[in-house]
Design a protein that fits this description.
The chain contains ten helices and eleven strands. By secondary structure, it is of the alpha+beta class.
């Protein structure tokens, strides 16, 4: 399915018209960095990456969805989605009040059972009958999903103009290694004041916030097929070893081990 077909499929499909407990779509993307603009649903939405990766941005934050993970977006939340060229996705739409799911966006680890139940729901389509075996499967799916493990793949993004300026610079050039002091000088403020501002606006130190940004970029590039050496260079690391050390400290495994475990 091409990116234009993806857009047409989503535009022609309004999940909010349906009141079944859960309905699903399965989609392939073949063009690079397909993006769905800012929008919202009455229903909650789970975006599951079967292959490749997806990225979801809401006011104040960005969530990464590597393979075999999903990002949960509660109903009524404004969000935009961006996917890699090789992404194969499932979209699950959940009727409000039918499942005990988080009231804030989060990345969830998706078990094989949950994944296959979502794919089955996408295969049968949205028009299953109330009380049918398909509806019972949908309810089992929601019960299993409520127990999913939350993963720390979140990048807080502040709308404060000074923080946004740093974020925009990192978005254009993730290898930008300017220190907190250098940024403070450019933003005409003291290093201590900027450190407090970043901590207040994001909940993280400047170094930890930039590392989380690097992690999000790395996951997106690695999921799209980029080599570890290329990603390390794109992020401005002095060596591949330094990048692998950062990745392992954050996610508990090297990039190769992490993606092998997902497969």
């Amino acid at each position: 399915m091409t990116s234009s077909t993806l857009s047409l499929s989503l535009c022609a499909f309004d999940p909010d018209l349906d009141q079944r407990p859960a309905i699903a779509l399965e989609l392939d993307v073949q063009h690079n960095d397909v993006e769905q603009p800012l929008h919202q649903h009455r229903k909650g939405q789970l975006i599951v990456a079967l292959h490749g990766a997806a990225q979801c941005e809401v006011p104040g934050g960005l969530w990464m969805v590597p393979p075999q993970h999903g990002v949960w977006i509660p109903g009524g939340t404004l969000h935009s989605n961006r996917v890699t060229h090789n992404a194969h996705l499932c979209l699950l739409f959940v009727e409000p009040g039918t499942a005990d799911l988080p009231d804030k966006c989060c990345t969830l680890s998706i078990t094989r059972l949950v994944r296959e139940l979502i794919r089955h729901l996408a295969h049968i389509g949205p028009h299953y009958a109330p009380g049918s075996a398909s509806e019972r499967l949908a309810l089992v799916l929601l019960e299993q999903l409520a127990d999913a493990q939350v993963e720390q793949l979140h990048l807080p993004i502040s709308e404060h103009p000074k923080i946004r300026r740093i974020a925009n610079a990192l978005a254009l050039d993730p290898s930008d290694r300017r220190t907190l002091g250098a940024w403070a000088s450019e933003l005409a403020m003291s290093e201590r004041t900027l450190a407090r501002l970043v901590q207040r606006e994001t909940g993280l130190s400047f170094g930890r916030w930039r590392q989380q940004w690097h992690l999000v970029v790395a996951l997106r590039q690695l999921a799209s097929g980029a080599a570890v050496q290329q990603v390390a260079g794109d992020l401005g690391y002095d060596s591949v070893t330094a990048f692998i050390t950062m990745f392992k400290k954050a996610l508990g495994a090297s990039p190769t081990q992490y993606f092998a475990a997902l497969r």
